Give the backbone structure.
Amino acid sequence: MNPKFLFPLILIFTLLVSTSLFSQSRKQKTIHYNANVSAPLMSSELGWITEVYSSTAHENILDKPQRLKDIKNILRNRVEIKNIPNPSDQKECTLLSEVPLMNYYVSDLQRDANFNPQNFNPLKYLFNFYSRGTQMYRVDNTNYFIIIESQYK
């Protein structure tokens, strides 16, 4: 093959491959939101944000539309609490007591003395909300599991 034509062919091939790889990596990073993230905050959600962020809640969450949308998505769509009473259906996973508290803004933030799935605040814990895969944690001495779905689908 003529060397004059070899360089342009290599250049074109390289551009096509890099464009294809870039396109695939962008597809994998798409974050999907349910329509419910557009609805206003519920009082319980506002309470959870305030419990963790205190006086910085507006600065860090409420006055930042994208951050607020991300938090709503976590609270409304990505955290599920399941009661799995059958031991054969249970999987080994990190215990809730092993997950550090998110006490950067409220230094005396406390773990709940008793677990109640109806008012559990997942924002209190440093869960791995931004991992690629689904995460699962077990509430100590219970059959409750906290499942955090990946934001990437």
About this structure: The longest strand covers residues 79-83. Helices lie at 3-28, 43-53, 57-62, 65-78. The beta strands are 79-83, 94-95, 135-138, 144-148. The chain has a mean pLDDT of 86.
